[in-house]
Amino acid sequence: MAHERSNCLNSENSITMNAPIVQSTDGVTLVGGGPVSQAEFRLALARAPRILAADSGADRALAAGHRPEAVVGDFDSISDQAKARLGAARLFPIREQMTTDFDKALRSVDAPFTLALGFVGARVDHGLAVFNSLVRHADSRCIVIGPRDVIFHAPRDLTLALVPGDRLSLFPMAPVTGRSSGLEWPIDGLDFAPAGLIGTSNRVTARHVHLTMDGPGMLVILPRARLDAALRSLLGAAWQPPAALPAR
């Protein structure tokens, strides 16, 4: 087991079925195999400097000049070149096929939050599976970063510091109700469901938006420039961004 201050990376021999592979007091950037721009890497790594890759996300990270601390997945898409460059100590194959590589990686992280790159914007089925995992692992505080948006699961109570005119979309992954303030179209009294009413393309009308959900299952979608607002809302006083972070 290698230690870096209070952070640690478990070796393959020491890991157990339910043990995290990456433990960190910092945020973790989780890289998938989809397209990721250098701007997205800068955006995430400035806030979450530890890197975990999901399967072929290792190739994506290495091609961008970043070396993952660990790779998790069923290893059906990572290249032999990436495996050779990283070495066996950084490879953590999980062979079961009941969950996706994103799900395997997300449940392998013990950190204050996770920023996920390369999981949306390419294949629709992959994106839907990612959103399913966000709901099933709602306590993980994971924010998925896409080409234009950030997406995360809404906790029961959420206050966001935004700018009037911002787009705020709500998409239910399960039947859920809630209440809101600071939105052009309030959600009070509405019954949301994946095959029923959804809440996309709402608009912010106040400096602070408050959402209260009656249960799990709602995804919040914001412009990518509001990543720090999302982190602040999820982490509270624990989120202290360094100065001069890239916002887009």
CATH overall fold name of the largest domain: Rossmann fold
Rg value: 18 Å
Number of strands: 18
Overall geometric form: globular
- Average per-residue pLDDT, rounded, comes to 89
Which stretches are poorly predicted, pLDDT < 50 over at least 5 residues?
Answer: 1-17
**How are the strands of the largest sheet arranged?**
7-6-5-4-9-10-11-18-13-16
What is the second-level CATH architecture of the largest domain? 3-Layer(aba) Sandwich
- Can you tell me the CATH class of the largest domain? Alpha Beta
Q: What is the CATH superfamily classification of the largest domain?
A: Thiamin pyrophosphokinase, catalytic domain
User: Which structural class fits the helix and strand makeup?
Assistant: alpha/beta
Question: How many helices?
Answer: 6
Largest pleated sheet: 10 strands, mixed
Percent strand = 25-35%
List its traits.
alpha/beta, Rossmann fold, 10-stranded mixed β-sheet, 30% strand, disordered N terminus
Layout: helices, strands, pairs:
Elements: E1 2-4, E2 7-9, E3 22-23, E4 28-31, H1 38-45, E5 50-54, H2 57-63, E6 70-73, H3 80-86, E7 91-93, H4 101-106, E8 109-110, E9 114-117, H5 124-136, E10 142-145, E11 149-153, E12 157-161, E13 167-172, E14 176-181, E15 191-192, E16 199-203, E17 208-213, E18 218-223, H6 227-235
Parallel strand pairs: 3-8, 4-5, 4-9, 5-6, 6-7, 9-10
Antiparallel strand pairs: 1-2, 2-3, 10-11, 11-18, 12-17, 13-16, 13-18, 14-15, 14-17
